[in-house]
Amino acid sequence: MVSRTDPNMGLYYFLLHFWTRLFGDSEAALRSLTVLLGGLAIPVIAVLGKRLFGRTCGLVAGLLLALSPFFVQYEQTARSYALLVLLVLLSSYFFVAALQRPSGATLTAYALSSTLAIYAHYFAALVLLVQLATLLAVKRREAFTGPWLATGGAVLVLCAPEIVFAHRAGSGGISWIHVPTLGTLVRFPGDVAGYKPLAALLIVLACYGLARAAIDRQDWKPWFLAGWLVGPVLLVFVVSRLGHPLFVTYYLIIVLPAFLLLAALGVARLPRGPATIAAVVLLVALSAVGMRDWYRSPSFESYRAATRYILAGANPADGIVGYPAKTVGYGIAYYEALNHVHGPKHIDLRLGQSPSTHPPRIWLVVRNSNVSPQEDGRLRRAISSQYAQLGPPADFTGITVILYRLDGAPLPRSGRRRRA
User: Fold this and answer.
1) For residues 21 and 1, what is the distance between their CA atoms, to the nearest angstrom?
2) In angstroms, rounded to a whole number, what is the distance separating the alpha carbons of residues 290 and 195?
3) What is the per-residue pLDDT across 30-52, written as a single tens digit (0 to 9) for each?
4) Are residues 258 and 312 in the same domain?
5) Enclosing domain of residue 138
6) Verdict on whether the full-model pTM lies above 0.70
7) Strand, coil or helix: 111
8) Are 179 and 313 members of one domain?
9) Using one digit for the tens of pLDDT, what is the confidence trace for 290-335?
10) Same domain, 67 and 154
11) Is the domain of 55 the same as that of 181?
């Protein structure tokens, strides 16, 4: 997987390989790894906030991350995002420590945590770019001295295999990403906060913290956080508009710690007493509402229910088309394996072309967040050129399933029922 098919998040796959050997591959076992990693990120953001702006900032930042609706969602998924947040925080902590009091041990820890962050997800490199810009602004000529050059060189050398793997894999795995609009950029704070009213309060507190930092003529630390929050988002947006689309909100979870740290800075700079207490109580309340709303209507795709539906009505000769093929294929295959059942055979289908093979029936499974109305229309037309739709689409959370029958093929008397 790491060296050929999907090298991004390779470190997480490596850890998960051994985790499943110990705890199995049930949903609870898989998700428990990310829960653990997400839990470890909370004290790290707390100590980073304390190092930057004091004890109050650290405690509030830890509380905000623990209650963040967006983070809580992604520390329950069997993906690399909780690990990414943990390693980006560790990298930033050792970076700040090295700027303040450089030592061989600190620089070594920075190089290792930064390298592991790249192996967890490529977008970690965007945070390293912000760190590089901060280093050049703060240290200037000293940034080109031996210790810093050796540290940067070590990171490049250690990441060389990942660069080779990424080049070998190509960009086919992210072909589903759409070009972002200005609306995407405007909605981003609410999306990454997990709840729009919470995002509004975080923005107000972050702006207040930056304003107080400017008035107090603080050093580079608040501006490092501002660059960490804004820089990756704007860079990915520009690249996505001018080159290959890369703008995915959960890829940009790397900026969530900076968002929360700046808001915590704003809380720490409020007048002591009722104002601070009121801000913390309101943040906790809005975070709780955001989490409640998500638990009532989760945003993740219900592959479990979709797979159960397909297996219950599938015939032995059926085929299945997923879009995006890899994403849907992995989701369906997991629940098939979990139930010890082999479902319909996967069929290749490119947009605008007919299926590569023609079984009597085809199940079309679409991950709705990855398909535009135009792409959805092309998918259905490609299949409908030779197949007739059987009944209305079946809608699950984030997933649409449609069953087609080959034109001219006889209707089966009864489908072979499979228990999911």
Assistant:
1) 17
2) 5
3) 999 999 999 999 999 999 999 99
4) no
5) 10-296
6) yes
7) helix
8) no
9) 999 988 888 788 999 999 999 999 999 999 999 888 888 889 999 9
10) yes
11) yes
